[in-house]
Amino acid sequence: MPYHKVKSNKQKAKEKAKKQNAKPKIKPLNKPRKELSKLQKDFMKEHKKKHSKEHNKEMIKLMKKGHCVEIAHRITMKTIGK
Fold first, then answer.
1. Taking the mean position of all CA atoms in its chain, how far away is CA 15?
2. Rounded distance, CA 24 to CA 47, Å?
3. Is the CB of residue 31 less than 8 Å from the CB of residue 66?
4. Which side of the chain, N or C, has fewer Cβ within a 10 Å radius?
């Protein structure tokens, strides 16, 4: 007969709470930079017309940390919005 460790309801509840509270963190794809690349600057010129100042500032900050444009936009839309 195989040996199985039985978990109590408290242990199950703690594990479930940990899974719900833990947010997957997206790691930057590139190295951090001091300035945006020429392509990123050109993209942001068009992007600024459609979104708020807060949105654009957050995107620039994330792109300087090393995120690509698409991921920076996705994260900013979740946190700040349009």
1. 23
2. 27
3. yes
4. N
CB atoms within 10 A of CB 75: 15
Yes or no: say if 30 and 68 are a contact pair by the CB < 8 Å rule: yes
C-alpha of 24 from chain center: 8
Domain holding 45, by residue range, is: 28-79
- Phi and psi for 9 in degrees, rounded to 5? -65, -35
25, 51, 46, 27 alpha-carbon torsion, rounded to 10°: 0
- Single pTM value for the model: 0.65
Amino acid at 8: S
Look at residue 57 and tell me if it is in a domain.
yes
Residue 19 pLDDT: 67
Question: Could you tell me if residue 40 is inside a domain?
Answer: yes
